[in-house]
Specification:
The complex is a heterodimer of chains A (about 220) and B (about 170). With about 220 residues, chain A is α/β, with parallel strands linked by helices. Helices cover about 30% and strands about 15% of the residues of chain A. With about 170 residues, chain B is α/β, with parallel strands linked by helices. Chain B starts with a strand and ends with a helix. Classes of the chains: A alpha/beta (about 220), B alpha/beta (about 170).
Chain lengths: ~220, ~170
């Protein structure tokens, strides 16, 4: 699955990685974006060996080309039990929640944490909600500390974890009990994914997740 | 390679969390995993399934986490083969790599109901519904992939090849 177009070209590497991560849930073998200056800068900073960039052939045959006008798409929430069950956040009824998970391999990069911090700043997580912040890597964890994001999260009464897959797959920490409901920026919301088979996971962006943590229900950041 | 067994019918998008929930992934012991096989799709499945039985499902079987515990649990529970309208690709590879044969057949997925007796021939891709005397077609499994299944999966297969090349 290849992503292209004027919006994709403007995305940062953090945003591109989220899209590539979710391609698997759409059934793709991989999610690719043609390398450009953004890619070059990212790789240059990290590569410890020589590398080569590849572009899709100009005459490549695509099985299907789908065009989206993304300016018309509002933040989406994927309802349980499938990442494909996406709905515009404003179309949802009042859905109270017990837990919010912001982080993981899908949405745990520094820009995701900055976005969550921007919305949680000077606000409090709703009393009945557990809000877990999980940076994707140790390097991102350190950067978040250096940028003062942890102070914002702690003042908002969120819990911060060391990088881990933990709650995403119901491994440990933040395991949902029967009847509990979470908003998570992770990538899967199948039956029992985050704990009890009678618990529910709603997938959303860090912005929707942070707004939901504050309001105690699934919410758009515009409602804050 | 042929299999005969009773069919258990499931719907579309059976994910690997349903096949083997993550709460049981604190072990890789096939026998332990087998006791919880398909638990979140059908809590009683592990008790009901008999050796040789066949799972028949709709499209996108095995979507989600790439955990190889999913085909391991199915195999250890006695499932001889999974037939689905389509498979998620990671599960597809994991199945052959762990020695669980699987077949794609939209015809069988649409028609078979739980309890029917099936006879499956991997060489030809022919599935016979013995309960109703019907025949469905699936893509035959190529010989080298049948060797993977016969050898018990990719690791034993490669080890055998390394032995013979020495």
């Amino acid at each position: 699955m290849e992503f292209a177009g004027p919006v994709i070209a403007q995305l940062s590497m953090d945003q591109r990685l989220t899209m590539a991560n979710m391609a698997i849930e759409a059934g793709a073998k991989n999610g690719i974006i043609a390398p450009d200056e953004c890619t070059r800068a990212f790789v240059e900073e990290r590569a410890q060996r020589s590398y080569q960039f590849y572009q899709s052939d100009a005459d490549a045959q695509y099985e299907q080309v789908i065009t989206y006008h993304v300016s018309e798409i509002e933040p989406q929430v994927a309802l349980p039990p499938s990442p494909a069950n996406s709905q515009p956040v404003s179309s949802l009824d009042e859905i109270p929640i017990d837990q919010v998970v912001i982080g993981s391999c899908t949405n745990g990069r520094i820009e995701d944490l900055r976005l969550a911090a921007q919305l949680l700043k000077s606000r409090r997580v709703a009393p009945r909600v557990r809000c877990l912040i999980i940076p994707a890597t140790q390097a991102i964890y350190r950067q978040a500390v250096d940028e003062g994001l942890f102070t914002i999260f702690l003042e908002a009464e969120a819990a911060i974890s060391t990088p881990t897959c933990g709650p995403c797959l119901g491994g440990y920490m933040g395991i949902l009990a029967a009847g509990e409901r979470a908003v998570a920026t992770t990538n899967r919301n199948f039956v029992g994914r985050m704990g009890h088979p009678e618990s529910e996971v709603y997938l959303a962006s860090p912005a929707v997740a942070a707004a939901s943590a504050v309001l105690g229900r699934i919410a758009s950041p515009e409602e804050l | 390679m042929k299999f005969t067994g009773k069919a258990w019918k499931f719907g579309a998008d059976i994910d690997t969390d349903a096949i083997i929930p993550a709460r049981y992934l604190n072990t890789s012991d096939p026998k332990e995993l087998a006791q919880h096989c398909m638990e979140d799709a059908d809590p009683k499945f592990a008790q009901k399934v008999s050796p040789g039985d066949v799972i028949v499902a709709d499209k996108n079987f095995g979507c989600g986490s790439s955990r190889e515990h999913a085909p391991i649990a199915l195999k250890a529970a006695g499932v001889s083969c999974v037939i689905a309208a389509s498979f998620a690709r990671i599960f597809y590879r994991n199945a052959f790599n762990t020695g669980l044969p699987i077949l794609e057949s939209e015809e069988a997925a649409a028609d078979v109901v739980t309890g029917e007796q099936l006879e499956i021939d991997l060489d030809t891709g022919i599935i016979i519904n013995k309960s109703r005397n019907l025949t469905y077609k699936a893509q035959p499994v190529p010989p080298f992939m049948q060797e993977l299944v016969a050898g018990g999966g990719l690791i034993p297969y490669v080890m055998k090849r390394l032995d013979t090349s020495r």
